[in-house]
Amino acid sequence: MTAQEARLAEAGRLAGMLVEVAEQAKAEFADTVAELGLPVSLARAIVLLTTPAPMRDLAEHLACDRSYVTNLADQLEQRGLLTRVPGQDRRVKLLALTDAGMAVRNEIFEAVAERNMILRRLTDAERRSLAPLLERLLDDSADSGRPTPRTTHRDGTC
Description:
There is one protein chain. A 3-stranded antiparallel β-sheet has the order 1-3-2. It is mainly α. The chain has helices spanning about 5-35, 40-50, 55-60, 65-80, 100-115, 115-120, 125-140; strands spanning about 55, 80-85, 95.
């Protein structure tokens, strides 16, 4: 095996493991929030709404169409977990969690932390080592300013 073939094999192995870890984490999150009676899309929105934010910001964080976020906001509002409040620019409505929404967010955080494979399987020292490596991988500026593509589903879902 040449050095280039070995390098490609290593890259494939590491990428495959990262994908597998991400898939396990997603499945674990989905199982956890399902036990709380929430679909993943609503739970992700709740987790991201730490402060009132415009729909466009939530759409960007979720990597989905703004029209889909309107649907999410409507569902969360119907459940009493979210309210729309005026922003500084009165033309822009902000999405804000209600007290009930904040309570659900806290439940999600607690349940996820309890079941989280990273917290269960890695020591404190291993997690401290892992964090800067992941941050470096997620740093767009490390690739000569080329932005990392974000996936938006064709149907606008998150």
